[in-house]
Every structure is written in C-alpha cells, then in structure tokens.
Amino acid sequence: MDHSASNFLPRSKAAEHSLRELADGGSPREVRPMTIIGIAGASGAGKSLLARLLYERLSVGRRAEDIGILNEDSYYRDRSDLSLAEREKINYDHPDALEHDLLIEHLIELKQGRAVDVPQYNYALHNRSPETVSLVPPKLLILEGILILHVAALAERLDLRVFVDVPMDVCLTRRLRRDIQQRGRQLESVLRQYETSVRPMFYKFIEPSKSHADLIVPRGGENKPALEVLMAHLEGVLTQADEAVPVQA
User: Fold this and answer.
1) Is residue 118 part of a domain?
2) Contact assessment for residue 104 and residue 153, using Cβ atoms and an 8 Å cutoff
3) 76 in a structural domain
C-alpha cells in the first residue's frame, strides 16, 4: 500500500462548491484557495496538541495570515439567560450545546475570502464571552473539536478529516489535569461531568464519527510518524496554494 502523503487528500463536493455559496450579486472578487483540515476525537485525546504542533511547525518562514487555527469550543452557545448553577448542568458534549450553524456559516464566509468574528468561550463561567477575535481567510485552516466529524454538514466541508484515537482512561487523566490547572475547575465537578456526559456522549456521538475520518492517528500529538506524514502533506498543500491563481468569486 502506498502511504505517501498525497493519498490523504479526500474528494469533497462541498469543497468544490463552497466558493459559489453566499453569492452577494456584486462584482467578482479574487479569492485565495483555502484548505480546511479537521482534527476530531475524544476530549483529552490530544487534538489541541496535534493542531498546535502542526500550526507551529508549518508557520516557520511563513506569513502569519497563511495558517489559521479554529476551535469548535468557541461555538458553544451563549447561555447568558441561565444562571451559573443552571449552566453547570448543561451537557456540553451533546451536539445541541454547540452552535454548529454559525461555525458552518463562518467556514463558508472564509472560503469566500471574508474575515469572520470568532466567538470566545469562558470555561470557568460556562458561557460565551462578549469579546470576539477576527480571523482572516488563511491558505490553510486547522479546525479541531470533538464533534466536527459527527455533524454531516460540517464534516463534508473538510478537505482532510483526522481522528485522534486514544484510550478513554488516558483521556480522563489528561482532562483532569487540563480542567483543573488551566480552566479553574474543581476535581469533583470534572469527574461528575465525565461520568454523566463526557464518557456516554463519546460512545454515542464521537466514537462512531471515526468512520468518517480519512486518517486515524493513535496517541495524538505524541505520534511523531503521523505528525511527519501530516506535515509533508500540508506543506504540499501550502506550496500548491502559493502557486495557485486566485479565483473569481
């Protein structure tokens, strides 16, 4: 079997047609081609580490606007209508907790060459922050999140679908360390959330979405051979984008 990096580029009808969506009827605009790689997997699997390593290594010698990174967590719904106690009871691992329609809209806008205002999320308060961060359309966008392969309308917009496959006991250990040290959570709260929502939702929604992946990566960002394969492929994608002539949208 040929394991060259070029074999990991899937064919997506959504990718072919996305530049024609949201037409505004105005004069044609020049749009740079944009490739989207999606990294999915369980909470604590190492998605963020893999995304960060790819971003940091691919950014060397490039302009800041060439590569972007986007987290599905930014699209947790604004629940300002609820008290903190009520927000703590929400199942944040269920697809309904996320505003995927807005995320899809933003991907379409970026493909069209338009910047978007990405929401920001406060994990300690379990709510969306009032601030947003502007994201200009990059040549390569790295999108990571637990449910991005479960939502069909979202998965089909990804040019490369990656699933990070790590045992759940390892994910729990990583999640405990992250939520307590980085997100200001309490041990009891993290364990309760893991038992009532994280683990059951993984088996209901996330684990089945692995079948939609083009590439499965055991051990996440710690898998150096897989990281090198992805690096080689994405460097090729960026080189092609450098040479591509902008299209008229």
Assistant:
1) yes
2) yes
3) yes
Mean pLDDT for 147-176 is: 91
Write out pLDDT tens, residues 76-127.
Answer: 999 999 999 999 889 999 999 999 999 999 999 999 999 999 999 998 889 9
Number of domains, the chain: 1
Sole residue written with tokens 């090198």: 228
CA distance 17 to 224: 34
Q: Where are the alpha helices (H) located in the chain, listed in sequence order?
A: 13-17, 47-59, 84-87, 100-111, 152-155, 168-181, 187-193, 199-201, 224-243
Distance CA 177, CA 101 (A): 31
User: In 3D, which of 215, 222, 219 has the Cα closest to residue 167?
Assistant: 219
Measured distance CA(120)–CA(27) in Å, rounded: 33
CATH number at residue 182: 3.40.50.300
CB contact at 8 A, 197 and 94 = yes
Task: Answer whether residue 178 shows pLDDT above 90.
Answer: no
Task: Compute the distance between CA of residue 226 and CA of residue 37 in angstroms, rounded to an integer.
Answer: 14
Residue 26 has pLDDT above 60, yes or no: no
- 3-class state of residue 55 by DSSP: helix
Residue 219 domain boundaries: 5-237
Distance from the Cα of residue 208 to its chain's centroid: 17
